[in-house]
Design brief:
It is a single chain. The two termini are 14 Å apart. The chain has five helices and no strands. The chain is mainly α. The chain is globular. α1 packs antiparallel against α5, α2 crosses α3 and α4 runs antiparallel to α5. Helix content is 65%, strand content 0%. The chain has one domain: Putative cytoplasmic protein (Orthogonal Bundle), CATH 1.10.3100.
Length: 79
Amino acid sequence: MPVATTVEIPTLIRTLRQRLGLSQRQFGEQLGVVFQTVNNWENGRTQPTRMALMVIRRQLEEMGEEGADLLEKYFNSEF
């Protein structure tokens, strides 16, 4: 699972969401959470659940080269 620290998770969430070209609401819909949850993650108020992090990791894997740097940096994995 991730090696991302609590401080890094907001950056991971925001960067991934922006690369996907999604609003916080749209990104939340993909993950099955509400806008406010994504907003809280991006602002460091709360942390994603283990399940949400697994979905985020899967999204990065499916992005191929576009997500490879984030996958390596935050999940300590190479694509």
